[in-house]
Amino acid sequence: MKKYIILALILLFSLTTYSQQKETLVTIQFKDSPIKDVLSKIENSYNLNFYFSDKWFNSGKVSGIYTEEKLTTILEDIFKNTDLNYFIDKANVYILQNRIVYNELPKIFSAPINDTVSIKEKKSNIITPVFYNKNNNDVNNSIIETVRIGKSTINSTKSIFTLSGYIKQHLNNEPIPNVTIYVKNRNLGVSTNNNGFYEIKLPKGENLIEVSSIGVKTQIKRVFLFNNGQLNFSLNEDIEELDEIIVDGAQDVNVEETLMGTSEIDSEESKNIPLVLGERNILKVATTLPGITTAGEGATGFNVRGGKTDQNLILLDDAVIYNPSHFFGIFQALNPFTTKSLKVYKGSIPSEFGGRLSSVFDIKSKDGSIDNFTGEASIGPITNNIALELPVVKGKSSLMVGGRSTYSDWVLKSLDDDNLKKSKANFYDLIAKYNHKINDKNDIKATAYYSKDVFSITSDSLYSYNNAVFSLSWDNQLNDKNVGNLSLFNSHYGFNIDYDGDTNDDFAFDYGIIETGFKYKVTYLYNSKHKINYGITSKLYNVTPGNKEPLGDESDVEKINLDKEKGLESAIFLSDDFELNDKLMFNLGVRYSAFTTLGKNITRVYKNEEPKNDETVEEIVNFDNNEEVKTYGGLETRIAVRYLLKDNLSIKASYNKMYQYIHTLSNNTTGSPIDTWKLSDYNIKPQKAEQFALGLYKNIEGNDYEISLEGYYKLSNNVPDFKTGAQLTLNENIETEILQGKGKAYGVEFLVRKNAGDVNGWLSYTYSRSFLKLNSKFSEEQVNDGDYFPSNYDKPHNLNLVSNFKITRRFSFSGNFTYQTGRPVTYPIGNFTYKGSNYSIYSDRNKFRIPDYFRLDLSFNVEGNHKLKKIGHSFWNISVYNVLGRNNPYSVYFVTEDNEVKAYKSSIFSIPIPTITYNIKF
């Protein structure tokens, strides 16, 4: 005992002696220099000796200019962004990692006995050293990695610090939710949230942390905590041979998440569902869910909760896809083998999304494997498809490429329509994606996509349309709690029509829209109860409304070029996922958007409160290039709330307000690939909508069964429609043909879903109504006397049943049944003769309906054998689309023949369509 006292006195004496020494003054300058080089420069110039370990220095560089400055000041500056401290003893400088050597005792030990200092104050001011227990070197005979977090500061008296971080999968960097973080020597623990984030308060010093979850290998680390800091874990998959077991890490997400009216579909889920011609189609699967419909077979686009097809924002890796379909809407324009997932927002739309009123289809493509070369291919009756994943720098980067083409003309010849039998159609699409992991904090991804369709409905016209998309994304972990994402994107959509008839009116017509922009979003994980998203986005539109030129030297067609359109749409957004307590959670969001129409153009100004026509033009204004023509904007509120009635039962409510500044021009009852897009301008106002929703969500037996019931009510304004017989193509005064009115939609959506077992699938039913009102004091701007009338896509009843029956591990049956109310149509109800000509009298708009639609599809699926060592895994799909041969009408049209109006019904697939598709994954 005496020798320890003597050693302590000697140490105290030496420290006291040092404290009385004069401190060294240093003059030095350095720029972007490694810390080690700076220390060597000081060491050589001032006869000092620095002691340290090279491995303590990272690649960071420092800069500074000092004149006759204290050595301690310089060391504090160059070590401020590290976990390094120092101790100076005469000419020796000892660099320390997370450690402090004190050269005097705390004042509390030298305070006079009669001073008034409470016991509590004394204890709070004592700086406790960190001790290391050698007996804990191993746990279960395994070596434990030791990690030091934070930097000790000489005046710090805190004893509790915050440790936070992310836990992800090692192979694909995906976050892992519900991972347990247990501190073995403190009996403390937390778990990660849905984003893989955790936060825990721990005592200063040694903490033995064990990270574990089902399906991953457990990790244990000894953490010496000296201050607040971050520790991330990358976990490997833990494979054990077990009896069949299904593990769902997000089994209660439908009940627990705040947002309502959302659906997420994995691309693999669409593999077994029978669809026309055996082609996997994640977007068609979405239409079997409540609230999402199409106008019919052969129609492009989707109608979501009573909205028009142009009211859906369809994104591929953050870039807009203007036409997501091939072959008259029968196929999706996205390669199913390169598509990872689809998330549909139709109720609660996050504030980061905007520009559309009804929904967001957020499609994500797959990241290529960074470790192994893999691929997938298929051969079907009209398409072939391939996707490859190639590691570029193993463990860091990869390239994914995919391509699809068709040989489909023979299908058209088999259809029950003489016009279609003489038609031809083909398409192809290409996609490439590069992903690169720069380091633990930075990832970049780049996606390029191109698709083209060519079709001819009649022998004298050739149509083509194409999508081109590019996006670049940079994920950057800014600090312990902030993650930034910068996306740059460019989208192009265009179509061409070449008409080559028997007369001298041959022409070529083209249309195009280009969208270029960026979005920067920051996710701020304030704590376990607050997740904040904020950011800014902007996009520039360039529209070529139409060019018509004579085709060939003998054509008499006059050349027409409409003025190009330009507009800038920008927004800032903020949202907070706020958990008030275990039961109540909010998602509060705001978005302020603005749109400016830009010149160069010539704009008509019409008299107020007068119909827009040639007689009411008040002024014609010329705007220069990029000159502001008109600006619109407003605050968009997004609110969602969830209350847990029980662990497996919740109630949710939401309110959305949205603006839309771009519209399609079409007087067809269904969407078409040659519909043109029109920007809001001086005379055409942006669309607005408000939606209220309420829902109830229930899980049974874990999440083996999911039940949801949602109701919504939506009001919209400035919804564009058109005058009867409107001329929309190549009309330089298109505002004279457009009517903007009010809309309302409401409905109830029911879904019951079975996720587990040999028999699984879902049943969805939607009752919904959608109406428009075009009212004016001028008869030429009225429709149906200014009363509400059903929209073209109003279908009150919509029922879908999707089921899968697993016979064995290799064999399964699948079925899909769909029923829809027939869409509205306007019928002729009489005729009259005037001056020798016959004319038809039509009913109120959309007063009648075409026959109801129903269809049954069946498929038999054969998986390849499950041998571990084989070249690839095969999958056969044998399906029959429209098993009952139902002659579902696509449209009803009327022709006057022999002074008599006759009705005709057109169908796309009126017979059963059998298909065999072979898939292989290697």
From TrEMBL:
Signal sequence segment: 1-19
Pfam families hit by this protein: CarbopepD_reg_2, FecR_C, Plug, TonB_dep_Rec_b-barrel
Annotated compartments: Cell outer membrane
Domain (TonB-dependent receptor-like beta-barrel) ranges: 416-882
Membrane topology type: Multi-pass membrane protein
InterPro entries referenced in this protein's UniProt entry, alphabetically: Beta-barrel_TonB, Beta-barrel_TonB_sf, CarboxyPept-like_regulatory, FecR_C, Plug_dom, Plug_dom_sf, TonB-dep_rcpt-like
SUPFAM superfamilies in UniProt: Carboxypeptidase regulatory domain-like, Porins
Positions in coiled-coil regions: none
Annotated protein name in UniProt: TonB-dependent Receptor Plug Domain
Taxonomic lineage of the native organism: Bacteria, Pseudomonadati, Bacteroidota, Flavobacteriia, Flavobacteriales
